[in-house]
Design the sequence.
């Protein structure tokens, strides 16, 4: 149990598990529940995943993690979208990356250089 707890405390593992949940498992569950494609794109892809992308950027900036962590969710989403969805969904991976990067850049503390 300690090894599992220690593994989940690693931010890379946490981001990867959340990305798999939001980019792979929830769309599959929505397909099994016969949720229409329009509702899936609107609520799951645009609303929920965008909120996660914003939270992801905020969390990375707040805890000073590597900015490479911003790529985890969009890459996993793009990989699954290439297999399963229409080409217009591919652009959402870029949207998620932009939202995460924008949030991270706005929250990341600025280092002020004092020059004489």
Sequence:
């Amino acid at each position: 149990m300690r090894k599992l707890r220690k593994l989940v405390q690693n931010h890379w593992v946490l981001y990867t598990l959340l990305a798999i949940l939001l980019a792979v498992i929830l769309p599959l569950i929505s397909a099994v529940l016969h949720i229409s494609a329009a509702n899936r794109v609107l609520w799951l892809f645009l609303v929920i995943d965008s909120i996660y992308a914003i939270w992801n950027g905020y969390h990375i900036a707040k805890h000073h993690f590597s900015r490479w962590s911003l790529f985890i969710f969009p890459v996993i989403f793009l990989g699954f979208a290439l297999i399963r969805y229409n080409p217009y969904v591919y652009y959402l991976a870029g949207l998620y990356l932009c939202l995460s990067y924008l949030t991270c850049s706005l929250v990341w503390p600025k280092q002020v250089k004092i020059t004489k």
User: Anything to note?
Assistant: The longest helix spans residues 37-62. The chain has one domain: 2-107. The mean pLDDT is 87.
